[in-house]
Write a structure and sequence with these properties.
The complex is a heterodimer of chains A (113) and B (111). Chain A is mainly β and 113 residues long. Chain A has no helices and eleven strands. In chain A, the strands form two sheets. In chain A, strands 2, 4, 5, 6, 9, 10 and 11 form a seven-stranded mixed beta sheet that branches. In chain A, strand 4 and strand 5 form a beta hairpin. Chain A is globular. Chain B has 111 residues and is mainly β. Chain B is built from no helices and eleven strands. In chain B, the strands form two sheets. In chain B, strands 2, 4, 5, 9, 10 and 11 form a six-stranded mixed beta sheet that branches. In chain B, strands 1-3-8-7-6 form a five-stranded antiparallel beta sheet, with no helix packed on it. In chain B, a hairpin with a 5-residue loop joins strand 9 and strand 10. Chain B is globular. The chains are: A mainly beta (113), B mainly beta (111).
């Protein structure tokens, strides 16, 4: 009965590689997000999609490309990985509009070596 | 830009004590606030929320207080248990559906 699920949970990869993180939600929400949490636990929005349309892109390098094949999925593809990309990436979803609770996945721990 | 911040990075309490976690926000236009709990190795989990037309809201063992005059938000946990040990974040609705998170406070509960 997982609400927001993302894979993989752990990913260790070398600099320069391309990797993807997948996310699926079964809550029937039509807005999905990617958040990044750094080593100091600071959570910052990266992208927001509503019904497969990009709503928010918060000054994220264009090496990061989200893809939403349908409103239940929002995948994150990262090209040419850099050391500074090491972080925990959280997928989340909510109903559309302000004041709706955002539900988070369990996170994907990315380590770039 | 405007941001949400926390006063205390770590709060240590004894089991059974009441805990109070504080948060200051600077965006006076924010109208919705949420507290999240993040346990080690997990994603943030919704605890309780409050809208700007309220100053207090109670849940099970938790109470959120909102003081719009001084732009202050607090989370009170009654009879704190070891299972409450986690990092707690306040967040404000910053437009459309997104949230701006504060820096987080770690709550450590000792038996």
């Amino acid at each position: 009965d997982t609400a927001v699920s993302q894979t993989p949970k752990y990913l260790v990869t070398q600099m320069g590689n391309d990797k993807s993180i997948k996310c699926e939600q079964n809550l029937g929400h039509d807005t999905m997000y990617w958040y990044k949490q750094d080593s100091k636990k600071f959570l910052k929005i990266m992208f927001s999609y509503n019904n497969k349309e990009l709503i928010i892109n918060e000054t994220v390098p264009n090496r990061f490309s989200p893809k939403s094949p349908d409103k239940a999925h929002l995948n994150l593809h990262i090209n040419s990985l850099e050391l500074g990309d090491s972080a925990v990436y959280f997928c989340a979803s909510s109903r559309t509009g302000p004041g709706n609770t955002i539900y988070f996945g369990e996170g994907s721990w990315l380590t770039v070596v | 830009g405007e941001s949400v911040g926390l006063h205390l990075p770590t709060l240590s309490v004894q089991e059974g004590d009441n805990s109070i976690i504080n948060c200051a926000y600077s965006n006076s236009a924010s109208d919705y606030f949420i507290w999240y709990k993040q346990e080690s190795g997990k994603g943030p989990q919704f605890i309780i929320d409050i809208r700007s037309n309220m100053d207090k809201r109670q849940g099970q063992r938790v109470t959120v207080l909102l003081n719009k005059t001084v732009k202050h938000l607090s989370l009170q946990i009654a009879a704190t248990q070891p299972g409450d040990s986690a990092v707690y974040f306040c967040a404000e609705n910053s437009g459309y559906s997104t949230l701006t998170f504060g820096k987080g406070t770690m709550l450590l509960v000792s038996p």
